[in-house]
């Protein structure tokens, strides 16, 4: 069962949860970073299953502006991916006194996890990216536009409001507008990836609608660990919902 708590930051409170916290396991906890429309609730039962299967504590938090956390104070800057490592993630790490940790990020959360692994290189033991973006490509932008049209239909935002409340429109616009901005035209994760020193596994769904196989291939090529990404056959952009058993098996196999 999850333990819920709050973390204070200069810009507002973050909602967080932890699973498996009662175990006296020496292995460092795994911190989850969610995607562009995500939050703790949208991980569903994956954190609990991961805690049970790995024997590790699992920690997740809603980024500022998402889920049950405080609203973001204004528009989200185009530097938001890099900013997370020294912002909310750093606050989580400080309050929980995490000397060592592993990171698992989904989609843009995977890109943020790479920045966090680079910035906190002396403390991050493992980096796992799932459906992460390493650069901007046409397929990513097209997928975002397609999803935007669905959310702009009558009552479409209610799907986001279920998880983000009155922050739903901000969440959608932050996703769509940042990725289609001029600043993101040439965005790449290369510099952060080159600074990652821990073993890294890039997992990607074979049918991912937001990124080609070149995305995880780039991550694998620039980080320590397997030189090839781990492809989940018949799976799309959200492995923790589409094929959680296989995703967890890949994580366990990687960590030995």
UniProtKB/TrEMBL annotation:
SUPFAM superfamilies: alpha/beta-Hydrolases. It is an enzyme of class 3 (hydrolase). Residues 28-240 form the AB hydrolase-1 domain. It comes from Halomonas chromatireducens. Pfam families: Abhydrolase_1 (PF00561). This is Proline iminopeptidase. One of its GO terms (molecular function) is aminopeptidase activity. PANTHER family: ALPHA_BETA-HYDROLASES SUPERFAMILY PROTEIN, HYDROLASE. Its EC number is 3.4.11.5. The keyword Protein biosynthesis does not apply. Keywords: Aminopeptidase, Hydrolase, Protease.
């Amino acid at each position: 069962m999850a333990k819920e708590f709050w973390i204070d930051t200069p810009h507002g409170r973050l909602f967080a949860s932890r699973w498996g916290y009662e175990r006296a396991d020496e292995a460092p906890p795994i911190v989850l970073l969610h995607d562009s429309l995500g939050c703790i609730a949208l991980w569903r039962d994956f954190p609990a299953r991961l805690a049970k299967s790995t024997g590790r504590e699992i920690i997740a938090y809603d980024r500022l502006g998402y889920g049950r956390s405080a609203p973001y104070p204004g528009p989200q800057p185009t530097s938001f991916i890099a900013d997370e490592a020294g912002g909310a993630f750093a606050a989580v790490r400080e309050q929980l006194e995490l000397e060592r940790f592993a990171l698992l990020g989904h989609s843009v959360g995977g890109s943020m996890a790479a920045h966090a692994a680079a910035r906190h290189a002396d403390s991050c033991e493992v980096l796992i990216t799932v459906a992460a973006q390493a650069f901007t490509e046409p397929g990513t932008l097209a997928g975002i536009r397609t999803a935007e049209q669905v959310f702009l239909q009558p009552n479409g935002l209610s799907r986001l409001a279920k998880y983000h409340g009155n922050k739903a429109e901000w969440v959608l616009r932050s996703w769509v507008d940042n990725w289609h901005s001029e600043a993101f035209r040439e965005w790449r994760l290369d510099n952060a990836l080159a600074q990652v020193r821990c073993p890294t596994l890039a997992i990607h769904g074979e049918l991912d609608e937001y990124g080609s196989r070149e995305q995880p291939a780039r991550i694998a090529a620039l980080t320590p660990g397997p030189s090839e990404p781990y492809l989940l056959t018949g799976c799309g952009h959200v492995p923790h919902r589409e094929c959680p058993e296989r995703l967890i098996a890949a994580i366990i196999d990687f960590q030995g």
